[in-house]
From TrEMBL:
It holds the Pfam family Pkinase. It comes from the Eukaryota. Belongs to the protein kinase superfamily. STE Ser/Thr protein kinase family. STE20 subfamily. It comes from Acrasis kona. Residues 45-310 form the Protein kinase domain. ATP binds at K75. Signal peptide: none annotated. This is Protein kinase domain-containing protein. Keywords: ATP-binding, Nucleotide-binding.
Length: 385
């Protein structure tokens, strides 16, 4: 089990230092939204149910009565983090969301602290995440390439924006792609995102490795030699494309250490034709181009936007209609959430550091983490930007 390296007093102190920054972001957002403000205390929201979980966080659906709007609230437990990590987490997620002005990135509303918790409020997209939709309707994958192209194109638009503003997402996967019935696809969860530059200087960053993201990690992310840059997102984009095609990410049945070994030592995964149908040559070509072990051989996001596969894309509205048609919506969206669903909000810290792997309880990250310490302090290579 991970042990806390900060006490509550240090955590609260660090959070208090961040409050002024939070207010600054709120004021900036007010200017962009005609002084529309959102409550900065948890009492200002009616909590409905948990809709997601991260390493140190839980995500809850809620309703903001003063704005009559459904929102998502990410509750982050800071008490198990180092003080430096608390400030880095705030900078990564809140700063990235608050400066983002792009239709394919989730809309940040406000953030605030309460005790040892940081709350980040964003719009709630009523279709849920793409991984939720896949598990309910497309367990064997999406075989309509028009739909696949539309989803990937929207993800790519978000990555183009992030990379243009010198940010790397580092956790691109379907569980971080959200859908709204109005016809929107948005990329979210920026806890692992980092700026490549700050005041013209290279950023040195550290983060806790998330075992549930191993399948999407590029070879260079697992390596301690050359570091990595935005091309790591392009690899994750390719794995996400296969996730859409197959219903699950390649290697998802393996243990995290097995995934790491396979990604670093074996050939990249490929798009494989199935017995009852074959994928188009343009989809095969897209996968081949992005899943190159050598990041220098991968195209950047802007170059990928010109790929012929994306000529298949349909309108976003039609794509969302296809995804959500005859699909059971989450309870909090369908209006039948159980009042007891939010019972754990007050005492749910979201600390899943004790959970080593979603698919195999017998594996322990604690036993292996000392064997790959370099993963905890990745080198970010900015030379190619």
């Amino acid at each position: 089990m991970f042990q806390s390296t900060s006490n509550s007093a240090d955590t609260v102190s660090a959070l208090e230092m961040m409050d002024s920054n939070t207010e600054h972001h709120d004021h900036e957002l007010d200017d962009r939204q005609n002084n529309v403000t959102y409550p900065t205390t948890i009492d200002g929201y009616n909590i409905e149910e948990m809709v997601g979980r991260g390493t140190h966080s839980t995500i809850w659906s809620a309703h903001c009565g003063t704005k009559n709007r459904n929102v998502a609230i990410k509750k982050i437990n800071m008490d198990n983090l180092k003080v430096d990590d608390i400030q880095n987490l705030f900078q990564n997620e809140v700063n990235m969301l608050s400066i983002s002005r792009h239709p394919n990135i989730v809309t940040y509303r406000t953030s605030f602290t309460d005790g040892v918790h940081l709350y980040v409020v964003t719009d709630l997209l009523d279709g849920g995440s793409m991984s939720d939709i896949m598990s309910r309707k497309f367990t064997s994958g999406i075989h309509d390439e028009r739909l696949v192209a539309t989803i990937l194109k929207n993800i790519l638009k978000a990555l183009c924006y992030m990379h243009k503003t010198s940010h790397v997402h580092r956790d691109v996967k379907l569980s971080n792609v959200f859908v709204d019935s109005s016809g929107k696809f948005q990329l979210g969860d920026f806890a692992l995102s980092i700026p490549l530059f700050e005041d013209g200087h290279r950023i040195k960053s550290s983060f806790e490795l998330a075992s549930n993201s191993f399948c999407w990690m590029a070879p260079e992310v697992f390596s301690q030699n050359a570091g990595y840059d935005y091309k790591a997102d392009i690899w994750s984009f390719g794995i996400t494309a296969l996730e859409l095609a197959y219903g699950t990410a390649p290697l998802s049945d393996l243990l995290p250490m097995q995934i790491m070994y396979h990604v670093m030592n074996e050939s990249p995964p490929k798009l494989v034709d199935q017995e009852d149908f074959c994928w188009s040559s343009s989809f095969h070509d897209l996968i081949t181009k992005v899943l190159q072990s050598n990041p220098d051989k991968r195209p950047n996001a802007a170059e990928l936007m010109e790929h012929k596969f994306f000529k298949k894309a349909m309108s976003d509205t039609d794509a969302v209609e296809m995804l959500l048609k005859n699909t059971r919506l989450p309870a909090h969206i369908a209006g039948n959430a159980n009042p007891t669903d939010y019972k754990g909000f007050e005492d749910e810290d979201g600390d899943t550091s004790k959970i080593a792997c979603d698919t195999a309880d017998e594996w322990s990250w604690e036993e292996d983490k000392d064997r790959i310490p370099y993963l905890l302090s990745p080198i970010v290579n900015t030379s190619n930007i």
